[in-house]
Amino acid sequence: MNLEKVIFAFFIVFAATLNFGFFIGDIDRPELHNIYELFAAIVVNMIATVLKFGDRTQIGAVLLSTSLVADLQLITAAVIWAIAVHINGTGMTPEVTSSVVSLSGGALLANIISVTMLVVETVMMRR
Amino acid sequence: MNSVFFLVLRRMRAPIIVLIVFYAIAVLGLTIVPGINADGTPAPAMSFFHAFYFISFTATTIGFGEIPRAFSDAQRLWATACIYMTVIAWSYSILTLLALLQDKAFQHTLVASRFARHVVRMHAPFFLVCGCGETGSLICRALDILGYDFVILDKDAQRVEELDLEDFKTNDPTLTADAGSAANLLMAGLCHPQCKGVLAVTNDDECNLAIAINTRLLNPDIPVLARARSRGVTASMASFGTHHIVNAYERFAEYLALAVASPERFRLIEILTGLPGTTLPQVHLPPHGRWIICGYGLFGQSIARYLALPGITLTVIDPEGEGPASGHTVRGIGTEVSVLEAAGIMEAHGIVAGSPNDINNLSIAMMAKKLNPDIFVVARQNQGANDVLFDTFRADFSMVHTRIVAQECISIITTPLLSRFLAAIRQTDESESHELAARLEAICKGQVPEVWSVQLDLRNAAAAHKALLNNWPLSAGQLLSDGARREANLPAIILMVERGSEIFLLPDAEFMLKAEDAVLLAGQHFVRSALNMTLRNANVLHYILTGEDRGGGQLWQLLFPRRR
C-alpha cells in the first residue's frame, strides 16, 4: 500500500462526493443546496488539484486538467452566489439557484471523469 | 522548461495544500462565530463572501481593519488565530520557493534547460567545442574573430563562469557538463542540423576519445577533431575513423624537423596556419648539426623521431636514462652543468628543453645559453599561465602545445582546402615558398592573415556565378580588384583554385575562373567582406568587369533598361 496513492484517491473521491451532495436536489430550490457544502467542495477540489501537480504521466496530466475544470466551475458558482446575495441583493431566487447548481453539475461531470480514470488506472495495474 | 516547471509544482505541493487548508479553516470559522451589532445586540455570523474578503487581506498582512462592521470578541479571538495560521502558511510557501531557487540541482536544471533551448534555436552554422581550457578558449576566440558561432561544454564550473566574462561577439551557449556523455552532447546540439563539427579538446584523452566515439556513432556526417597525447589513444581514435587527430607533440616535432630541413616552407605554413588576429611569429632558423634533447617523454620521443634527419646527431638527457636505441644518452634533468657538459653542450648547435615541468625547462634553457651563447634553444611551455616568463626569456623557438592544437583545429575546420594546398606546397621548390611568404608578409603588415575559401556557386557567389554561366570572362586578377576603385587591388592573394579534382596553385592575374570553382585566399580581414560584395552584388561585379557604373537594383533595371 502506498500512502501517497491513498491520500490521492481519497481527495479525488471526496471531491466528487461533496460535489454530488451539493448538486443533488431540485435545481431551483435554494433550501436543498447548502452553501457550506459548496465551500467544502471547492476546498477539497483545490486540494485534489494541487495533489496532481508535478505528475508528468499522461494520465496525471488528464487528471490535472479535469480537476482544473471542476475548480473553474465551482469557483464560478461561488462568484455567482456572492454576486446574487451581496452585490445585486437579489438573493437566492430560483433562477440564481439553478445557475449555481447547474455549474456545480458541470463540475460534478468533470469529477466523475476523474474518478473513472482513477478506477481505470487501478484496474489496469497488474500487481 | 517543462522539467523546471514540473519540478517547481512538485516541490510546491505541500505548501500550497497547507495554504488552502488554513484558508479554508479560517473562512469556515468566521462564518460560524457570531458577530455583534453597534448597539450591542448579537448579529449573525459573517457570510462566506465577507469572511473570504477579511481573510484575504488579513492573511497577506495588509490588514484593512474590522470590515464590514466592528467585530464581536468571539470574532476577534478567531481572527487572532487566523492571523497566525495564515502567516505561517504563507511563510512556509515562500521559504519553500526560496529554498527551491537556492537548490543546486534545481539551478542546474534551470541552466541546462535554458542552454538546451538556446541551442535548439541556433540558426547559423556552429561548432561544438568540448573542453574550454587554454586550448578551447584560443579556439573560441579565433572562431569568434572568424564569425562562427559555437557551443561550449566544459566540466569545470569555474571555467564556464570565466567564459561569461570573455567579450565574444555572439552570445554563445555554455554549459557545465561532462562532454563525454551522449546525453550532454545531444543537448549541446550534436545532431542539430546546423552543427558543422565537433572539437574534442579537453585535457583528458579518455574524454576526447569518448566524444569522438559518440560523434562517429550519433552523427557520422559531421567532422570530429580530437586532441590526443598518447599513441594508444591516437590509434584507437584512428581505428573508428576520427576525421582529424591533433597530436600537439607530433605536430610540433614535425614543424621543428621541417624548420631544420626547409625553413622557407615552414615559414609559409606558419604564416598560413597562425591564429587569426595574432601577430606574425618571428622567423625561426634552427641549425643542422648536434642537438641535445632534455626529457625523453612523449614529447622528446616525437622530437627524436622527427629530428632523425641526415646531418643531425642527437644526444638525449633523461632523468630515467632512457633514450633512443641508436643515440647517445646521459642521465639527468639537464639543469646541472655537469650533465649538460657530458652531453656536449659546448659543441652542440641546438637544445630542446622538453620536460613536462615549465620551471625546469626555463632553467635548462637559461643554463644552456650561459654555457654556449650561440646555441639554438627550443623551449617547451606547458602552461599558458607561464607566458610572461617565456616571453621574457625569449627562446629561439617556443612550443606551446595549446596554441598548436588550436591552430591546427582552426585551420582544419574553417578551411578544408588549406590542407590540400599545404600538401601541394610540399611538392614545390623552397624558393617558391620563400617568395609567397614574402608576399604574404608584405600584404598583412605583421598580422597573421586570414585564410578562407569561396565556392563560386549560386549560394555563396550569386552574381559571379551568373556572370560566369553567361560567359562573362572573370579572371583571378579581376576577382581581387577593389569594388570601389577597380584599378586598385585588394590586399589578398589567391593561393589555389580547385576545379573538380584538379588544382591550380597560385594562379596568376590572367587565370580564367569558371563557375563552381573553389578559391582559396589569404589576406587581411576586411578583404573577405569586400570580396563577398564583388561576388554577390551584380552591380559591383559589373563595374569591376566593365568599368561602368550601373545604378539601381534588379527592379530598377527591369523598369528602366538603359539603352546602349
Using brief descriptors, characterize the structure shown:
heterodimer, A: 127 residues, B: 564 residues, Helix Hairpins, Rossmann fold, 4 domains, 6-stranded parallel β-sheet, 18 strands
Walk me through this protein's architecture.
- The complex is a heterodimer of chains A (127) and B (564).
- With 127 residues, chain A is mainly α.
- Chain A has one domain.
- In chain A, 78% of the residues lie in helices and 0% in strands.
- Chain A contains four helices and no strands.
- In chain A, helix 1 (3-23) packs antiparallel against helix 4 (94-124), helix 2 packs antiparallel against helix 3 and helix 3 (58-87) runs antiparallel to helix 4.
- Chain A starts with a helix and ends with a helix.
- With 564 residues, chain B is of the alpha/beta class.
- Chain B is 49% helix and 15% strand.
- Chain B has 24 helices and 18 strands.
- In chain B, strands 5-4-3-6-7-8 form a six-stranded parallel beta sheet, sandwiched between helices. A six-stranded parallel beta sheet of chain B has the order 11-10-9-12-13-14, sandwiched between helices.
- In chain B, strand 16 and strand 17 (502-505) form a beta hairpin.
- The longest helix of chain B has 30 residues, at 73-102.
- The A-B interface holds A 35-36, 39, 43, 46-47, 50-51, 53-54, 56, 78, 81-82, 85-86 and B 6-7, 9-13, 16-17, 20-21, 24, 27-28, 31, 47-50.
- Chain B: The chain crosses the membrane at residues 12-33, 45-65, 77-101.
- Chain B: It is a multi-pass membrane protein.
- Chain B: One of its GO terms (biological process) is potassium ion transport.
What integer value in Å does the Rg of chain B equal?
A: 35 Å
Morphology of chain B: flat
Q: Number of DSSP helices of chain A?
A: 4
What CATH architecture of the largest domain in chain B do you see?
Answer: 3-Layer(aba) Sandwich
> Beta-sheet strand percentage of chain B?
15-25%
Protein topology:
The complex is a heterodimer of chains A (127) and B (564).
Chain A: H1 3-23, H2 35-51, H3 58-87, H4 94-124
Chain B: H1 2-11, H2 13-32, E1 35-36, E2 42-43, H3 48-59, H4 73-102, H5 104-120, E3 126-130, H6 134-146, E4 149-154, H7 157-165, E5 174-176, H8 182-187, E6 195-200, H9 205-218, E7 224-227, H10 231-239, E8 244-246, H11 248-261, H12 263-273, E9 289-294, H13 298-306, E10 312-318, E11 328-331, H14 337-342, E12 350-353, H15 358-371, E13 376-381, H16 387-393, E14 397-400, H17 401-414, H18 416-425, H19 430-444, E15 450-455, H20 462-469, H21 476-479, E16 492-499, E17 502-505, E18 518-523, H22 525-536, H23 538-546, H24 554-559
Parallel strand pairs in B: 3-4, 3-6, 4-5, 6-7, 7-8, 9-10, 9-12, 10-11, 12-13, 13-14
Antiparallel strand pairs in B: 1-2, 15-18, 16-17, 16-18
Membrane topology (chain B): Multi-pass membrane protein
Keywords (chain B): Ion channel, Ion transport, Membrane, Transmembrane, Transmembrane helix, Transport
Pfam family, one (chain B): Ion_trans_2
